Amino acid sequence: MVLVLIIGDLHIPHRAHDLPAKFRKLLVPGKIQQILCTGNVCDRETYEYLRTIAGDVYVVRGDYDESASFPPSATIVHTPIRIGVIHGHQCVPTGDLDALSALARQMDVDVLVSGHTHTFQAIEYDGRFFVNPGSATGAWTGSYNGEITPSFALMDIQGAVVVTYVYQLVEGEVRVEKIEYRKELEAPKPAQSQSLTSIPQSGVAPQNIPSSPQSGQTFW
């Protein structure tokens, strides 16, 4: 099992002062193995904070990130799941599933993580899984007139099964929803004179977060 934090569009300090305190209490070191960030981190202090949660941090460059060290996209493999990460401003129209699906095909990924809209979404479409963690700080965006709900997501990856938990701060309380995606695997070809071997089904573990050692890289 691999637990991955999906987070982005923090816009600290330009549009938000900090993460909500109730989110910080949940995001403790030693529980999460990897972080995938959709960009718009905006300052080094926030990036360093993410590295205290997990050492293995991937950040893609958002349209407000000044650091040229962040790549425009990233591909991470947790066999058999391939995950692509982009900020989302590459998608026209913004957040359009057909456009996102085309990008996912180009990147050859099963799961595409994107941001930019500041609105959470997790949906299976055209045989792939699309996740937008929203804005972890609830930062405003010019493309949306209403109040932004702060949110992030945790992906529990178990083989071909990805269980996504979305955390949203609604009226001062953290609410959690669960969405499951299962990659369809091709049946292995039987060896000559042998019968076809069935594929074991991955079970979904409870939401308990295991501790694990951390190792990662520096982008800043």
Describe this entry's structure for a reader.
The protein is mostly beta strands. It has helices at residues 21-26, 44-53, 97-107, and strands spanning 2-7, 34-37, 57-59, 73-78, 81-86, 111-113, 120-125, 128-133, 151-158, 161-170, 173-182. A six-stranded mixed β-sheet has the order 3-2-1-9-10-11, with helices on one face. It has a five-stranded mixed β-sheet with strand order 4-5-6-8-7, with helices on one face.
Please summarize what this structure is.
With 220 residues, this protein is mainly β.
Label this structure with key terms.
31% strand; mainly beta; disordered C terminus; 220 residues; 11 strands
* Helix content percent band: 10-25%
Which structural class do you get from the secondary structure elements? mainly beta
Distance between the amino and carboxyl termini: 28 Å
Please state the average pLDDT score: 83
Radius of gyration over all CA atoms, rounded: 18 Å
Major β-sheet annotation: 6 strands, mixed
Q: Sum up the overall morphology in one term.
A: globular
Order of helices and strands: EHEHEEEHEEEEEE
Our estimate of the beta-strand percent is 25-35%
- Number of beta strands: 11
Contiguous runs where pLDDT drops below 50 for at least 5 residues: 193-220
Counting DSSP H or I runs of 4 or more residues, the number of helices is: 3
Order of strands, main sheet, comes to 3-2-1-9-10-11
